[in-house]
Amino acid sequence: MADTQSVTDGVLDILEDVLEIPRADLEAHPTLRDHENWDSMGALEILSQVEGRFGVQLDLREFNAAKTVDELASAVSAGIK
């Protein structure tokens, strides 16, 4: 199982890339939907990249329930076996 910090770092890497938002902004404002670049297409791209990078399959409801970077990282961590 991956440690929490490495999962969070990986999730931040993906968010930074897909949303085109600097990591510092994501860390300062961790609520995902507060970012103007967050939309349904970006969310699906993030889901796809998270699943591919970490080898997990997240339930769409679980993914959508994650409101913050930490909640998304926790969902990913829970899915890693």
From TrEMBL:
Supply the InterPro entries for this chain: ACP-like_sf, PP-bd_ACP
Name of the featured protein:
Carrier domain-containing protein
As recorded in UniProt, coiled-coil segments are none
- What region holds the Carrier domain? 2-80
The membrane-spanning stretches of this chain are none
Superkingdom assignment: Bacteria
